[in-house]
Structures are given as structure tokens and as C-alpha cells.
Hints:
GO molecular function, one term: glycosyltransferase activity
CATH superfamily of the largest domain: Glycogen Phosphorylase B
Largest sheet: 8 strands, mixed
Number of helices: 16
Radius of gyration: 21 Å
Distance between the termini: 8 Å
Number of strands: 14
Low-confidence stretches: none
Pfam families: Glyco_trans_4_4, Glycos_transf_1
Protein name: Colanic acid biosynthesis glycosyl transferase WcaI
Oligomer: single chain
InterPro entries: Glyco_trans_1, Glyco_trans_4-like_N
Mean pLDDT: 92
Number of domains: 2
CATH architecture of the largest domain: 3-Layer(aba) Sandwich
Strand order of the largest sheet: 3-4-2-1-5-6-7-8
Helix content: 25-40%
CATH class of the largest domain: Alpha Beta
Keywords: Transferase
Amino acid sequence: MNANGKKRILIYGINYAPELTGIGKYTAELAAWLASHEHDVNVITAHPYYPDWEVHPSHKGKWWTREVLDGVKVFRCPLYVPKNVTSIKRILHEFSFLLGILPWWFMTLFQKKFDVVLCISPPFHIGILPLLYAKIRGVRFINHIQDLQVDVAKDLGMIKNRHFLKLMFALEKAIFDWGGQVSTISEGMQRKIQAKGIATSKVILFPNWVDSGLICPLSRELSLRKEFGINNDDKVVLYSGNLGEKQGLEIIIEVAKLYKEQSNIHFVICGSGGGRDKLIKSAKELGLSNVKFYPLQPYENLSALLAMADIHLVLQKKSASDLVMPSKLTGILAAAGCVIVSAVPGTTLHDVITNHRMGILIEPENVAALAQGIETALHEDLNILRNNARAYAQKYLTKNTIIGNFETNLLATA
């Protein structure tokens, strides 16, 4: 601990800035916030590759490197990044990261010790080395769960070998048991972690956040409609974010087919990920000129991107219920967006949307339900939902409040 009572913090995570979306964005914002509050923050991570699954040009060909970003000391390592992501290739990808961080792990072992080690999961097994460091040096270990990765792999059928799944669950449980606190991003995920036999006292809530000053409602004229060639009088249904397996995004193409003859309704898919090429191919085969694809936009353009939409989509498969919490929702709420959410009753996502009346809920993986939700959003006055969304973001999702509460937790124990 520093003389002024601030902490030396070591963060492990496979994703980090300059990645624009997903876990890396939140980890980088957390680290930068802590550094700006005089903590000594070090991060061990990979070279940026997500969500394109290709190492960014700025880091391509690099091995073990050091840099300083927003006051944070960042130590990067090489890793295997597959072009076509399969379950086996993803396992190899994640284990290559575990091997890549070994030099940095040995370096930290013989330096002045850190006060807190924070591990960001997934990958779930990244916690092995940080936990070993914490035990050897006698320091605090916090395992932060953004996705319950093993449950997702099982429930989505990504891994079917029951013996391998049993081994993965056992390793996950061991990391939970031997570590200190476990933090996660929703109450539903808290319940699922506790159901694994983890004491309630060990599991803390640390939700994702949004900067509601930077992400705010904008007029249609200030949106990206002009840049994207869309008339202000047309209607836009927007999905923005990771194009992956958990979302079940094929449903967007199926619904867009129903609006094929309505030239004033555009389905805009803005993002990258393993499912992008498949979606583009499907839209092309069906001759859907009403579906438009764009790359991820820089964070400074996010408000303008969100402002172009009449309807936002937050979609996930039934089997992913309460195993993940869509991070894209925070920005949509802060931008006062009208959001259609696919969620199962009893999950945190369903409860939050219902209790605060800030979106249209539909059954996951149901084309007819999504089409009906879009019709509702297109023809009803939904200003109350938009206003409630913005109010919720300002009250519950502000960055300073959420990270400030987490910092209090960090400072509570030496």
C-alpha cells in the first residue's frame, strides 16, 4: 500500500483497450479510473484482437511489450488468435494466453508485492496463475465474472464432452473456493454462482456502467444517418455490438425478410465477431437490401450511432439466460433508446426491464415475437420507455458511483 493509503493493484484480463466493445472496454475503464484516483495499477493482458478475431494492426507482430495507457502500466503478451473460431480453437486460444502471461507472472512474483490481484473472467481458467501469486505473496484475490463461461459452453452446446465439462466445472469451483471474493455483474449471476456452493458472503455485485455524460440522447440530425445514407424520415432497427454465438442473431435476418418490400425500414447491424460473415451471407442469399452492415464505431461516435435508431435490439438465446448480461444495454439506456429485449421471465434482465418499464420484452429465439415487438415500437408512443431508460441509467449505472463503490470495497481490507 502507498503512503497515502492507496493500493497497488494487479489486474489480469485477456481483453483490454484499445478494444472498442465487450469486456476489454470495461476492464480498461476500470483500470484508468483507479489510476486517476492515485492507485498504482498494473495490467497483464494480450495484444488487442476482439471482436474481429484478428490482432489489431497497431500490435501485429509484437511479442511481450510494455506501455502506459491512461496512467496504467500495461504488460502485453502474444497469443494464438484463430481466424475461424470453433470450440477447439477457442480453447487453444485461451490456453495460449495462459502460457503467454508466464514471463510477466514470474516478473511480478519477485517484485514489490501488490495489495490486490483482480482477475477478469472469462476465460475462467485465467485465475490459476493470479490466484497462485496471491497465495504465495499472501495478498487479496478478487475473481470478477463477466460471463459464466463454462455454463455458457455447456448450455449452448459448444462443448458436449461430459468428462471435459466436469473437469472444467471442477476447476472453476476450485478457483472460487480457494480465492477470496467473487464479483459479478448481475443479481442473476450472483444467484448462479451461489448455487455452485459459494458462500453468499463471498459474492459481491459489481455491475457494468455507462458514462451518461458522454453517452446521451441526441437529435436525429446529429446522428449517423447522413453518413450511413439513411433518410431522417425512414425507420431504423439497430443491433450494435458483438456478432457472436450467444445472441442468436439469425433471427434479425428472418424478421428483415418480412419487411423486404418496405423500403423505408432499415435493419442496421453494426459490429464484428465470429457470426458476421454468416449473417452477411444469409442476407445476400435472401436478397435483403434492407439489411445494412457496418463496422464497430469509435466510442466517441457511440451517441451519434445510437441516436440513429428508432428501435434497438438486445438479443440472446434462451440457454444464455442469466449466464451473461448484455453490456450493450447500458449505452442504449443512457441514450434514451427504445429497446426490444429478448429475455426469459425470472432472469435479472427480464426483471430490470419490467420493474423499471424501460423496454419491450419478447420471448427469445421467436421470429413472430420479434416482429410483433417491432410493430409495437413502430406504431405506439414509447416516449415513457425512453424517458425511463435515461432516468435508470443516470440513477443506477453511472461510472463514478459503481466504480467508486468497488474502490470502497478494495480499500476496506488491507
